[in-house]
Please model this.
Amino acid sequence: MKIKRGIILHNQFSEGSESIFINSGVIHHTQQLHENVNFNGIVFKPNFEKDAYLPKRDWRKLSVEEIKILQSNKKRNDSNTICLGEIPDDLKKLYQNLKLSDCNNRDEIFAKFRENEKTTIELNTSMANFLMTLSNNKPFKIHFLGSNFPNLEVVACDTTILPKGYTEKDMKFLGIHNDGTQYVSTYKLHKSGNRLTINLGNQDRYFFFINITLTQVLNMLKEKISIKEHEIDITNIAKYFFKYFPDYPVIKIKQKPYQYYIAPTDNCFHDGSTLGNTALDMIIVYFGAFQF
Ligand SMILES: [Fe+2]
Model:
């Protein structure tokens, strides 16, 4: 299936389109071979939610036509665009001072911030200055500082339903999904803002997305089934889309250390990936309505 014009890509990576790949769609998790995860003495095969779909692994470079379909323009905004960039050098140096690459888990990451109080204070100021340049005078806030195991095909999981003291072995991965915890009408998702995610680890990581908005998804589904009868909303829309359009391509972005992406994650299907990695994945995520 060919990609449609939908979510656009505002790419400020110095390597240009070298970091962008496309495939031929998704596959149900039961149909995919799963790698063992083996990190820091913990070995397991990932578990998935019942309706989890994963990207097929037939990645290739984009054609000239596909690059054009994703091309950003002046109509870009916080709900229709994925922005790729790199954090400023002063911020990068401060993060490097923390030596996060020594960390093997989330607690160790937090300890690094506590042990380096001066750097942490400087980081807060520099980070706020940087985010201010993107915020368009709208409020933003930190959402998450955390980690993922290496070699996970998809990383998102609803940790709020896991027991206290859970480990990676207990996690059930969602597969490619849309965010949003509270019910919002699919038609109001363009007001949900976006998220900025920085790679703080020392290996490349990946961001998957499907380049159409959930309104476009709903319109495509309407041609196949009754939205009313199937009670399609933001909680089950991914399941129906992947069932009826498994051949719609996924876009994969390679995100090097200290590069960031900004994405309207309530308004499009997406996930992160650490497949092939050997070190702990570390990210910091901010909520806002970032403009670029
Ligand atoms: Fe997500």
Summary: The chain has one domain: 8-288. The mean pLDDT is 94. The two ends are 30 Å apart (CA to CA).
